[in-house]
Each structure stands twice: as C-alpha cells, then as structure tokens.
Write a structure and sequence with these properties.
Radius of gyration: 20 Å
Strand order of the largest sheet: 3-8-9-10-11-12-13
Order of helices and strands: HHEEHEEEEEHHEHHHEHEHEHEHHEH
CATH topology: TIM Barrel
Helix content: 40-55%
Number of strands: 13
Distance between the termini: 13 Å
Strand content: 5-15%
Structural class: alpha/beta
Number of domains: 1
CATH architecture: Alpha-Beta Barrel
C-alpha cells in the first residue's frame, strides 16, 4: 500500500498493512522547534536551518527527507497569508509579540516556548462593534496561490493530503477575540452577541472552505477543523449548551464541506474530555477525532473504540501529558503497545501523539515511540 491507500483504508475502518503514522500532517500533530532540533541531532541529520511552520505554537517545518526516513504517511497544506497581512514580530525588553490576522495580540516571554493570546480586540461585546470589526477576507485568492500545484505533487506521490483551516474555529476563536472569561459570560448572558460572533466566524470558515475546495479539492482528502470542547475533567460548557449553540453551527459547517466534496473526511481537533459530546459530534458529520487526549476524564481508549469505533477514526492517542515527556523509553513503548491494542483492530486509527510534540520531549522517547510503532503496528 502507498501512504494514501493506507490511511484511506483505515478511515473507512478496514485494516491496512500497518497502522498509519502522522507527524506534521496537521497543526496539532507537529513538533516544537526545540524538540525537532534535538531529534535531528540524535538522528545525525545536518540542517542549516529549521523553519517555523506555525509561529504561535512554534512548530518546526519538518524536512521532507526526515518525513521519508520516519515513514510518515501524511502531507499537509497550510493556507498562505492574506494580501493585507504579514507576520511582523516586535520585541521589547521581556518579550516578543505580533498582531495576528484577526487583530489578536500574541506574546512570547523571554523564556517562553510559544505565543499566548494577550490582547483581545473585541472589548465591548456589542453588535455594533462586531459589525464594524475588520475581519480577514476569507475569499482572498492569495491564500490559495500555488497550493494546487503543491497538493497535486503530494497526491501524485501517493500521500494522503490534509488541509489546514483558516483559524482555530468559530467556537474557539471567540475566546481569543474576547478573552476566555468574557466569552464564557457571553454564552451565559449575552447570547445574542455570542451567537452573532460565532455566526460571523462560521461565515468566514465556510467561505474559506468553498474557496479551498473549488481551487484544490481534487487533491485534498481530509479537512482539518478545530474547536476545543473539553477540559481535563469534562466539556468546557454543558452538553445542553453545546447542543443549543455549537452543534447546529458545527453541523452546518461540516455538511457544507461535504456537499462541496462528498468524499472528504472531516477531522475535528478537540482537546480534553469530550466523551459526553461524541454522540453529538458524530451527528454533525465528524469522521475523525483528534487528539484523543487519553489523560483526560472518560477518554479511555478501549471504551472509546468499543462505543464509537464503528463510525469514528481516532487520530492521536499517545499520551503527551506524562508518558512522552516524563516517562522512560520503556514506559513509552508500553504506552504505544496499549494504544495500538485498543485502537488499531478493525482499522480506524492513525497513530500520532496527543497534540504536538513539545519542547521537553527527548529524542530517545520520540524514537522509542516510533520504533515500537514499526515493530508492533503491523496488521
């Protein structure tokens, strides 16, 4: 099987020749620049430069020869910057910062590892402010300039091609635009405004996917969407509030994408404990759950596979809160075997860590993970 056949087989919940492997195939399955440099050194690979693929998360652009050496089955396409914005990082005594495409200020402190949202531009929480706000133009064709050629090359080489979303999602992005406390309060007591904000962001997302699929949809297999819905112990909002405010919009987005390209798979990145929301997510048209945060409440992989494995693919699942950064290589190997045992039977599993590999993960543990997959991940 080539990589694309391998993943499409597992997405259709059939067993391929081996468990597919993803690294850098999404903006939640990458590797921090510090961990990547350490991995390159460990592997004896000399690179003059490590480019940053995602400035906020400080993800490295993984070199093609490294992806090939590690037998990675995915290749990802990121949208280009719009015509009226470019990354411009400023410095002060203690930090670096930039203003993002949505007007959010992102800051990394001197000893920081990634940029955090520190300036929330929608301060008033009013419809008037919302109507006058200069949101990005999702139809700006510069976003897709040259991407069809890039996607076609990956496709013709036999790789599964994934496409990154325009933003963090219509539910997640408001927390950055308004501030977390403010948007939680909006959902509870300023609901007309909260819904108007989500609808505006949903409109941008839908227009973006319309442009992307029209331009390069022949070569895209997976639409990468994101809306974090879980915390460590349960959903961020009650299931009833989710069903009232988020689910209808999620359904609208997903079915819009599928109408544009019926064969595409909807990948949802949603961290945390989302077990209580999974039946609803399935109804909205989600095909793939990422990152499968096994350290969160109710996210036991054996249970998830038993209850939802007939309709969902699990993409992720290797613990990054404790085992990958803090465990011994043997503990990493045991973790990999457990998740393969739980999630791989019958297909429906793409192997990846839970979210990005962070700076404190040693190359020894990364390679213990990879080597165990090679040995244990055959069907």
């Amino acid at each position: 099987m080539n990589p694309r056949e391998r993943i499409l087989t597992t997405l259709n919940r059939k067993e391929p020749d081996r468990v597919p492997y993803d690294l850098d195939g999404a903006n939640q399955t990458g590797i921090h620049r510090i961990a990547y440099r350490s991995l390159l050194s460990y592997l004896g690979i000399q690179k003059d430069e490590v480019s940053i693929r995602d400035p906020i998360q400080q993800l490295a652009y993984v070199h093609e020869d490294v992806l090939e050496r590690l037998k990675v089955d995915t290749r990802v396409i990121y949208p280009k910057n719009p015509s009226n914005w470019e990354l411009n990082i400023e410095k002060d005594k203690e930090s670096k910062y930039f203003i993002g495409q949505y007007g959010i200020r992102w800051t990394i402190h001197k000893e920081g590892l990634y940029f955090d949202p520190t300036g929330h531009p929608l301060t008033e929480g009013t419809i008037k402010e919302l109507n006058n706000y200069p949101f990005p133009d999702s139809l700006d064709r510069k976003r897709v300039e040259g991407l069809k050629k890039e996607a076609r090359k990956f496709y013709e080489r036999g790789f599964l091609v994934t496409m990154v979303n325009i933003s963090g999602g219509f539910f997640e992005l408001p927390f950055w635009l308004r501030g977390f406390e403010n948007f939680f309060c909006d959902l509870a007591g300023n609901t007309k405004y909260a819904c108007a904000l989500m609808d505006r962001l949903l409109e941008i997302e839908m227009a973006y996917w319309d442009l992307v699929i029209t331009e390069l949809g022949d070569y895209i297999d997976v639409a990468l969407t994101a809306n974090d819905g879980g915390g460590q112990d349960g959903p961020l909002i009650s299931p009833s509030m989710y069903r009232k405010y988020i689910k209808p919009r999620q359904e609208k987005l997903n079915f819009f994408i599928k109408r544009k390209k019926p064969s595409i798979f909807i990948y949802l990145h949603s961290c945390g404990s989302i077990y209580d929301l999974i039946p609803d997510l399935i109804e909205t048209g989600v095909d793939i759950i990422n990152p499968v945060q096994v350290s969160a409440a109710k996210m036991d992989t054996k249970r998830l596979k038993k209850e939802f494995g007939d309709v969902l693919t699990f993409w992720g699942g290797i613990d990054t809160q404790r085992v990958l950064p803090h465990g011994s290589p043997q503990e990493v190997k045991d973790e990999v075997k457990r998740r393969i045992d739980d999630l791989a039977p019958g297909g429906g599993f793409v192997f990846a860590p839970v979210h990005n590999i962070q700076a404190d993960v040693t190359p020894e543990n990364i390679m213990a993970m990879w080597e165990t997959l090679q040995e244990y991940g055959k069907y």
